[in-house]
Amino acid sequence: MNLSILDISIIFGYLVLTILFGFWVSRRASKDMQAYFLGGNQIKWYLLGLSNASGMFDISGTMWTVTILFVYGLKSAWIPWLWPVWNQVFVMVFLALWLRRSGVLTGAQWITFRFGDKAGGRLSHIIVTVFAIISVFGFIAYFFEGIGKFAIIFFPWDLSADLGFMALTSAQSYALIIIAITTLYTIKGGMYSVVGTEVLQFVIMSISCAVVGFIAYTSVSQEQIAAAVPPGWDELFFGWEMGLDWTGYLDSVNQRIAEDGFGAIGLLLIAMIFKGIFASLAGPVPSYDMQRVLSTRTPAEAARMSGLTILVLYFPRYLMIAGFAVLALVYLTPEFEAMGADIDFETVLPLAIDRFVPSGFQGLLLAGLLAAFMGTFAAFINAAPAYLVNDLYKKYINPEAPQRTYIRYSYLASFALVAIGLIGGFFAQSINALTLWITSALYGGYAAANALKWVWWRFNGYGYFWGMIGGLLGATFIPPLFPDVVAIYLFPVIFAISVAGCLLGTFLTPAEPDEVLMHFYKKTNPWGFWAPIREKVLAADPGFEPNQDFKRDAFNVLVGIIWQMTLVVMPMYLLIKQSAELGVAFLIFLLTSWLLKKYWWDPLKD
User: Domains, the chain, ranges and CATH?
Assistant: First the structure.
């Protein structure tokens, strides 16, 4: 692809701007650990919300989502429930409040707040730190795979190199350069740099999404889409089977559906809901999303920040995703047919940009997509070192070191984590394989222990430790035993192993001390099975008001999931020009927005 001078200038101008901004805020960020990792809890909630949305607008995920929309049509709106995407709704409704009340720096430090600092608490603290680091390695490999595939289609220079001890493809060289730039500005500026650049990145991405949506809307007719897709592609709902047959349209898509294992979508949806409830109740994993919650000024602002993330993320992102998918369906199908069985569906997005976005806008769009990648990657690189420095080095090795020492070690930890994660990236097979492993297997091992920690008073540090160990071992060894089974179907097995570890660890060891549990319960005030502790807290403080909001929270979660889904399907209906369905989705969006305003936003308090 031949980019114009204007396009190249926009891209390089953006890269230079982000680096300069990181160095500009580095003095403020290096004040202490609180400033470096959480922005001193002084950043406005709406800026954190835009930053969080930008961090979730990653390029690898966007490429994957364009692919599944191309292949599965509107039914693809359900497939991201693999994560599940509606875990954000649980965070928005109640978990952000509970998490922010702790006042801690990291998710691992929160574990000490929950289980205390004796042997069980320390074991649980160490295992969640290990989990956080392993998940960062997986995501770095995921980003490395995605940005490399993306870059080689757009940038004209061949950067392949033989280093003697290893040979780099051009895609790997581009990925290394972009990751190095992102790591540099993130390390220098900490949370201030991440949030500042991500707000800029979100603005760029939103403009880019609007441009792509406009191009698709004015370039493709409803009749062209209907002629390019099989019956049922434009229908949101389904039976037990996906019911899509691409024979005569693009035969190789049938092979992709068989490989993905998404054909039995009814059973898949049941598995996703089962996993999703526990994974969502577990709360945000120890990464950038949790860090945004902990960075807010108050618990109510943490909840508002999480709600804003959902509101501003999905419509613009899916406007771009749907735009590229319909353009590719109508105009690139002959090109994909010529590829035969060798078609790489993960190149749908970059090929569509190459073919349909005009010069000038290409530079803006590519800068925006680079921004999406850099924002997500930067968020992980800012969050992960806190676990090594604050939760290992400071806690167990040198608790009295000066703040400057902790910041310096944070720099070193960032470099080390990126380097190790990149090694995994060289061995990654595909974005889809990494996505399914992270969402279905690795996070499957996280769900049980982290759901129980909120709602059951008797659950202790040993139970958490052995539950996490069981989950991580299951996630590591179970999937290779069943290589032909979609990872989501293995979740119940991994979950059962983790639950067994939780229960054995809990009942074979004593409960945590009353003072630890009472401190946690009174400060966090969760609902759940806390009766013995609640009675002790009320005896000590008769004025304490226990959380009685379970029914309201459950209602808000259900409404929030529907609300979030409308933000996904409205841009799809818009670009495939289904006016009646768009109108219904918009009315549901208005109704659910009103319900959330009345029963979630208005009652928020610190």
Answer: 5-442+545-601 (1.20.1740)
